[in-house]
Structure formats: structure tokens, C-alpha cells
Amino acid sequence: MQVRHRARVVALAMVMLVGAGGCASVPQADPGGTGGGLAPVGSAEQVTGAGASSLPDQLTGSDTKPRHREKPQPKVRATKTPKASTGRRPRVPQKSNQTRCQLGEHQREVETYLARLGGFGTVTVDGRQTDADCAAIKKFQQRYDIRPAEGRAGPLTFDVAKRLATTDVKRCSAGSGTTFCVDLTRQTTWVMRDGKVVAKPTVTRTGMAGYATPAGTYKVNLRNLKEWSNPYEVWLPYWQRFNGGIGFHETTTYLHNAGIGSHGCVNLLHADAVRWWELGKVGSRVVLVGRRPGT
């Protein structure tokens, strides 16, 4: 009985020793896939997308201590990244144009005219395209229906900007009341009331060759929101007649197609036709000066 009792005690002691040693010798999982052992800090995030909370305790500052002693690892001193032989970082070449818009052949001229006109945003007159210049030019093109409105200072944008910026509103002999003014030479029109400009110069298109719109002073004698043209079989929105069959109306074609022109009428963009209608009335004065080139 005594021998059998001693054998049981020895067997129990061996089981306890093997169990304790087995827990300590099991290799740690490799969450980062680095080939064995604990994953380095951050590797689990890179491979699995896990957050910091999923990393081992000893990598997150936990107070839990390991049950076995580990040999101290030698400290590795951080090495500085060697500098280039010149002692300076290489410069990254900058692109000459990093804006949303292309540089147009009339960049500086358009910048000059837009700065003079005002109301289209910040413009720097230096002949260089910037995002601010791009936005201002695009806004200008959208206002005057210049297609495509892409912010590029091309020939049409240059032509329209020049005509508007060089229009002399004093050429219109405006008295009391409302006066519609038309500069046939520059193909612009504006509205004055009691000698003051109430609608700034905008673009227009008057009679083409053989149908020249005559200069002179007239009065609006008929108004109709939508007038039918018998000779040309087309509707004329926001019609304001002032001389025979000639009057203001919204254009029915692309206004900047200078090759076709009108048959004597003063064509307007939609927004301007509406504004002119709101400002006018029967009896309003109309003054036309100059002559359209080529007519």
C-alpha cells in the first residue's frame, strides 16, 4: 500500500510538470504573417486591417506581465537617413500650368478687360492662367453664352470682352425716363434711366449685310411677350418694336454666329431680353449710334 501510494504521488508530480512546461513552449500565433513569433507593431493593421485594440498586450502597453522571462534584446540605435551629396533635397519640377483651364492665346488681354469690367471674380493681369483666372473667364463666358464655357481666353472671348470693356455709354444721348442704347459698331446695348446706367452693356447682334439696322433716335411703339413674324415664320420672344418692323427680341439662333445676323432687329440673349422687357414700356426712347462693320 505504501509503495502504491508513492507511485501515485510521483505520477501526479510528473503530470503537473509536463502541463506547466507545455503552456510555455507553445509557439505564439503569427497575426502578421511574418514567419513566426509575435508580429511587429502595426503589421497586423497592414495585413488584416485590424485596429490597435487587436494587437498583443505587450504591444499596446498592457499591465499584464508574461509568466516567463525573456532575454533582454540589444538596443538598436536609430540611424539617420543619409542626405544627398549636395546637402539639399532634390526639387520636384513644377508644371507651368496646373489649373483646370488651358492657357488661351489672348490670356493677358482678356484678363485686362475682365479686370476693367469687374463682377467676374479676382483676375490677375499677368498673362498666366490660374484657377482664379479660369473661374472668372468661365463665369464671363457663361454670362454671355460663349460656347464652350471652358475658361480659355480664345478669340471669341477676347472679342466680346473687348467690345464690352470699350463701350462708351456717354455716346448715348439719354434724357429723362428710360432709354435703350445700342452701339452698332461694337454690337453692344445697355439701358439708362434719367442719365444713369441701370443695365450695363451686354452683347447684341443687329442687321446683317443688306439688312443694316439704321442709326437714329426712336420710341418703342408696340410690345408683345411673343410676336409672330410673318415674313420669316418664327416667334419673336419679348418683342419691343421701335422702327417699322424692327425691334428688340430674344435671339432665335446662336447670337455669336456673326455670319447670319438679323434682318434689322436687335437680337438679345434670353436674360437680357427679359431684363429689357422689364425696364421698357411703350414710349421708351431708343438711341442707336454707329454702324455695324460690313453692312
UniProtKB/TrEMBL annotation:
Residues 34-103 are annotated as: Disordered. The active site is at H249 (proton donor/acceptor), C265 (nucleophile). GO terms for molecular function: peptidoglycan L,D-transpeptidase activity; transferase activity. Residues 178-289 form the L,D-TPase catalytic domain. One of its GO terms (biological process) is cell wall organization. Pathway: Cell wall biogenesis; peptidoglycan biosynthesis. InterPro entries: LD-transpeptidase, LD_TPept_cat_dom, Peptidoglycan-bd-like, PGBD-like_sf, Transpep_catalytic_dom. Residues 1-24 form the signal peptide. The keyword Cell inner membrane does not apply. It comes from the Bacteria. Keywords: Cell shape, Cell wall biogenesis/degradation, Peptidoglycan synthesis, Signal, Transferase. GO terms for cellular component: extracellular region. The keyword Cell wall biogenesis/degradation applies. Pfam families: PG_binding_1, YkuD. This is L,D-TPase catalytic domain-containing protein. It comes from Micromonospora wenchangensis. The lineage of its organism: Bacteria, Bacillati, Actinomycetota, Actinomycetes, Micromonosporales.
